[in-house]
Amino acid sequence: MSAPILTPSKVARARHAQPPADGPPPRAGSFGRSLRRNLTAHGFLIGAVLCFAFFSWYPMVREFLLAFQKTDQGEVSWVGLDNLRTVFEDPAFWQAWRNTLLFTVLALVLGFAVPFVVALVINELRHGKGYLRLLVYLPVMLPPVAAVLLFKYLYDPGYGLLNELLGSVGLPEQQWLQDPDLSMLSVVIASTWMNMGGAALIYLAALQGIPGELYEAAELDGAGLLRKVWHVTIPQTRLILSLMLLMQIIATMQVFVEPFLLTGGAGPEGSTTTVVYLIYQYAFNFNNYGAAAALGLLLLVLLAGFSAAYVKLNRAEDE
């Protein structure tokens, strides 16, 4: 039998019918194969998103709805801005905001500066850094309730350790938690001691990432310790400092545990009544969930606006 004659048209049709062996594989079903290959990763991701949506997004949406609703004997009705009017007409509203702002300012003076100074001191030491890091972080590992009750014992006017120390040096004893002028400062001191360990370790990690050549150059220029901190340390850790400042403000504006356990929440003459404690009172003492949600919405809007302004300013500085 004679071999078939290959014409140019047959050769062209054969080339179109069979793709070259070394060409790219077909793309059909590539997404499905990739999904099956990464099924475990997608499962963990979907679980995390669902948990975040259930425990974070849903409460925020629910709070927004409750701020404009009123529940009476199980019946829910829309009341518009009545809950906001109730909150604004409460005399404790403005006092709670003043106390919260005072706590934030004092916490920034102590809770923001003290951990940075502690990190500077540990970073300058040559021996015992690991022990000191453990010692500084130890209060963070304590349960918050246990740490607060420890300070409540220290502040006790009868047998507290602080008054014992003041009496031993001839100074008058103080009513730390019973005096309206000292109660907020006492709460700030306890909060700073409880939470400074994490911030100090973050600052210490940032300090250890600064090149040593910068300090050597500053020493050759005759810079002392304070000038090295101001011209080298702070500029090199500006991003961490600004981020920790934002986190500090957000955390202090939501303070609740320390005043609630130390002074019962309100404190003497309402000196430690904070916004979050007022939300707690509306919800669980007055059973007014609409007013509690309205006040929480105001706090959410304030913190969100502050965070947006912070991000915009940082972006403008980077540009």
Describe this structure as you would to a colleague.
The chain is mostly helical and 319 residues long. It is built from 15 helices and two strands. The protein has helices spanning 8-17, 30-37, 39-66, 82-89, 91-124, 129-141, 144-154, 161-168, 183-208, 212-220, 225-236, 238-252, 257-262, 275-285, 289-318, and strands at residues 69-72, 75-78. It has a two-stranded antiparallel ribbon with strand order 1-2. Helix 5 packs parallel to helix 9 and helix 6 (129-141) crosses helix 9. The chain is globular and about 75 Å long. The model has no long low-confidence stretch (mean pLDDT 83).
Give the gist of this structure.
This protein has 319 residues and is mainly alpha-helical. A two-stranded antiparallel ribbon has the order 1-2.
